[in-house]
Amino acid sequence: MTTSTLTPNPTLTIRTATESDYAEIGRITVDAYIDAGHFDDREHPYLQFVQEVAKRHETTEILVAEREGIVIGAVTMVRAGTEYADIARENELEFRMLVIDPVVQRSGAGRALLRAVIDRAREIEDVDTVSLTTGGHWMAARALYEVEGFDHVTERDWFVPDTDIVLVVYTLTL
């Protein structure tokens, strides 16, 4: 069974990623970024970086969304001062690479992963804020974050190094 043959609206499971998920997480991440038009070359260095799931999982937490035994999405959670943190400050849980297989986007899996990140943040004693970076023109993602209570923190926005691509920062105070 592939993501294109999934039953509409079956049960969604959010769970911790395992080693057997790594290849699928890498594929979904690249497919989602390519499909959204963020990259046009699968060999782009950043797309190579996001496929290093095993290395990433050594120092981060990764959750997956699964339907009918098939991984359809993933998200990575990081803490300030760690290798994969872009914007996390002390007492923040930053999430990155929230991706859903393009074949099943807009099915609720992204919202479910987002809510799982928030739930996980509430379990961590010294975390009082969830933070993220998203593309300035990624309006669907931004709308989801805003509906879920995140605020755009303009003073923390930044540019992809050596480009004019703006990345915007959102936070949710717990």
Structural topology:
Layout: E1 12-16, H1 22-35, H2 45-50, H3 53-57, E2 61-67, E3 70-79, E4 92-100, H4 109-123, E5 129-135, H5 139-147, E6 151-152, E7 158-159, E8 166-173
Parallel strand pairs: 4-5
Antiparallel strand pairs: 1-2, 2-3, 3-4, 5-8, 6-8, 7-8
Largest sheet: 8 strands, mixed
CATH class: Alpha Beta
Full CATH superfamily name = Gcn5-related N-acetyltransferase (GNAT)
**DSSP strand count:** 8
Radius of gyration: 15 Å
- Residues in β-strands, percent: 25-35%
InterPro entries: Acyl_CoA_acyltransferase, GNAT_dom, NAT_camello-type
Keywords: Transferase
Protein name: N-acetylglutamate synthase-like GNAT family acetyltransferase
GO molecular function: N-acetyltransferase activity
Question: Main attributes?
Answer:
174 residues, alpha+beta, 8 strands, NAT_camello-type
Compose a concise summary of this entry.
28% of the residues lie in helices and 29% in strands.
Could you walk me through the main structural features you see in this protein, from its secondary elements to its overall organization?
- By secondary structure, this protein is α+β, with helices and mostly antiparallel strands.
- The chain has a single domain (3-128), classed as 3-Layer(aba) Sandwich (Aminopeptidase).
- Helix content is 28%, strand content 29%.
- Strands 1, 2, 3, 4, 5, 6, 7 and 8 form an 8-stranded mixed sheet that branches.
- The longest helix is centred in the middle third of the chain and has 15 residues, at 109-123.
- The termini are far apart.
- 32% of the residues are buried.
